[in-house]
Amino acid sequence: MMHPPGTATPLPELHRSNLIVPVTQQRFVESAHRRGADCVTLDLEDGVAPSEKERERKALEHSVELVVRGGCRVEVRVNRPMRLLVLDIEAAVLPGVSAIRLPKVESAGEVQRVSELILELENERGLAPFSIGLQALIETPAGLLAAASIARADPRLTSIGLGCLDLAAACGFAASVENLAAPSQMVVVAARAAGIKARGLAGAVGNFSDLEAFRQLARRSRLMGLTEGGAIHPSQVPILNEEFGVSEVEIHQAQEILAMAQLHFSQGVGAFAYRGQMIDRPIVEAARHTLAIAEAVVAARDRLSVT
To answer: In whole angstroms, what is the distance from residue 218 CA to residue 215 CA?
Structure first.
């Protein structure tokens, strides 16, 4: 993309960590913007008792205002019985909300109908059309089999993710990495074919305080092509930022690749060897992206230090 002369190239959006916070837990909501997560998901679904859902919908606007102070993205996870879904979306289409997480999606038509409802609300409330994205959660066997069509359903859809615990329960197997590897790869392939992101982790850790097991899960998930793992506790956020981010080694190698590319390309050489690997333009572009991510990480840290 070309940018006007004298303007800085926008930094890429970070997709490493997503801290899930029940709207009912206001003290956690108030501190969420200081936890260093790239995204905070305000949960109206599993984290809210049925008797509290109406009250928390009314509190959602204030919760969004609290979280956006840290500069991270804010998403809202809604409920999936249709009557609750409509009420949740009417409450969630707000300034500051970047996306709505739609649970238990089983068809492309569901995504399209929700997108149409969001567009009506955006127009009514003076928000830019398609300013609020959608993430579809695949949590049932039917949804998994329809993942490819769901991923292509609507331009508002920016990612799909696997709801590991729900899918495992629906299938009758344990939520282990071994059992969820194949479903995770199905979601990754479906997302890549549609040109969107595959977000989440390829399994679950029963004890959230077992940070080493969580790190291993995050590392394996990234190797499988997944991005932006979900954290249910703030102690998990730094691990996700490390495992889904860029390391000092990756930054150093990207700098070396770009320096060598500048030299070789100026001499009319389109490909060259680096550490036993053949480097051409796609790899050079990936190196540029790595350095842009590193710059975005520094900018996020700077924002956090002043909040």
So the answer is: 5
In angstroms, how far is CA 102 from the centroid of its own chain?
A: 13
- 3-state class (DSSP) for residue 259: helix
Q: Strands, E, within 10-149: which ranges?
A: 17-22, 39-43, 73-77, 99-102, 133-138
Angle at 230 between CA 25 and CA 175, to 5 degrees: 110
Residue 14 pLDDT > 50, yes or no? yes
77 φ, ψ (degrees, to nearest 5)? -95, 125
Token representation of residue 83: 């009557």
Round to whole Å and give the CA distance between 206 and 208.
6
Order of strands, sheet of 133-138, starting from the edge strand that comes earlier in the sequence:
197-199, 157-162, 133-138, 99-102, 73-77, 39-43, 17-22, 229-231
- The pair of structure tokens assigned to 217 is 């899960």
Burial class (CB within 10 angstroms; exposed 0-12, middle 13-18, buried 19+) of 229: buried
- At 104, is the pLDDT very low, low, confident or very high (cuts 50, 70, 90)? very high
pLDDT band per the 50, 70, 90 thresholds, residue 7: very low
Q: Does the predicted TM-score (pTM) go above 0.85?
A: yes
The whole-number average pLDDT for the span 66-70 is 88
Closest CA to 204 of 162, 170, 145, 147: 162
- State both tokens at 72: 């991270």
